Amino acid sequence: MAEIKRPKTAAQRLRELIADKSKIVNCPGVYDGLTARLALREGFDCLYMTGAGTTASRLGMPDLGLATFNDMLENAAMIASLDRKTPLIADADTGYGGPVMVARTVRAYITAGVAGLHLEDQVITKRCGHLSGKELVDQDTYISRIRAAVMARDEMRAAMGGDIVIIARTDALQSLGYDQAIQRLRLAVQAGADVAFLEGPTSVEQCRQVCQDFVDVPALLNMVSGGVTPNLSVNEAQELGFRLIIHPGLALFPVLEGVENAFREIKATGKAHVSEAQAKEGVKKLFNACGLRDCIEFDAKAGGIAYNNV
Ligand SMILES: C[C@](O)(C(=O)O)[C@H](CC(=O)O)C(=O)O
């Protein structure tokens, strides 16, 4: 019998991207089906699901640790399902509890087809890493989070070939300083984390230093525009030595400002602005971005007749 070739898992694809030292993995932040579709259409190699965006869009709340495990998992699973060939890195905050809960998070993200996740050392009542006054769990508690994640991943590997890239994030720079933050990341890597993520470096020098301190471990840059980190381009981040870059706010701010303007305009003038492209393509502009053609083709191929006249 011919051997069935197993397709690569999302995590394998992400591992291959990270392994290519000539490149940086450039991940636009997405937080819902539409933003994910738009990023996929532009052909990015990897997407990033922002927790801040998930919390804002699904709950209408700020990034203060309010999105639960279920909120985050459901969103990540939906986004990962849109295109199985493009890996998704998803925010997993603190892991949502003690080691058993962290393991549950990791198993569920793997089952959902998420390629990578990041876990941090803030307390459960966490906040955006670029706000002041962050509180941390102690080092041992943090490392037990990472250890639990690694144990769960290894179990899933043995049981079903499941995998996930574990990104260790520390928020310790703000309160404990650079050396202790790096120490936490080193211990996380020793515990089996794959990627080092120093949250909120405040200078280019610190960015360069973290890459030098982790020569054998890929380092991730969190490019929060309007955050505490200097605004670096993808090329600049790569030159400094980063191997991954995420842009959590990339889709959020255009939506925030664009929708705000549209709402103000209709309130003030009573008439909605219709762009040239919108006028030309009509409502299909939106549906096409969300895979209208593929749905119609799929339906027809399966013998459906409901959409042959759309
Ligand atoms: C990366 C992050 O965890 C996110 O939720 O996307 C946030 C980003 C943000 O709040 O803008 C963080 O840096 O804490």
Q: What Rg do the Cα atoms give? A: 21 Å
Strand residue content: 5-15%
Helices and strands, in N-to-C order?
HEHEHHEHEHEHHEHEHEHHHH
Question: How far is the first residue's CA from the last residue's CA?
Answer: 43 Å
Number of strands: 8
Here the CATH topology of the largest domain equals TIM Barrel
Q: Rough shape?
A: globular
Mean pLDDT value: 96
CATH superfamily of the largest domain: Phosphoenolpyruvate-binding domains
Overview of the molecule:
The protein is an alpha/beta fold. The chain has helices at 10-19, 33-41, 51-59, 69-82, 99-111, 139-160, 173-176, 178-190, 204-213, 234-240, 252-269, 276-281, 284-289, 292-301; strands at 25-30, 47-49, 88-91, 116-119, 165-170, 195-198, 219-222, 244-247. The chain has an eight-stranded parallel barrel, surrounded by nine helices. Strand 7, helix 10 and strand 8 form a beta-alpha-beta unit. Helix 5 packs parallel to helix 6 (139-160). The longest helix has 22 residues, at 139-160. The structure holds alpha-methylisocitric acid (MIC). Alpha-methylisocitric acid is lined by residues 50-52, 63, 91, 128-130, 222, 224, 248-249. Alpha-methylisocitric acid (MIC) binds next to helix 3. It catalyses: (2S,3R)-3-hydroxybutane-1,2,3-tricarboxylate = pyruvate + succinate. InterPro entries: ICL/PEPM, Isocitrate_lyase_ph_CS, Pyrv/PenolPyrv_kinase-like_dom, Pyrv_kinase-like_dom_sf. Belongs to the isocitrate lyase/PEP mutase superfamily.
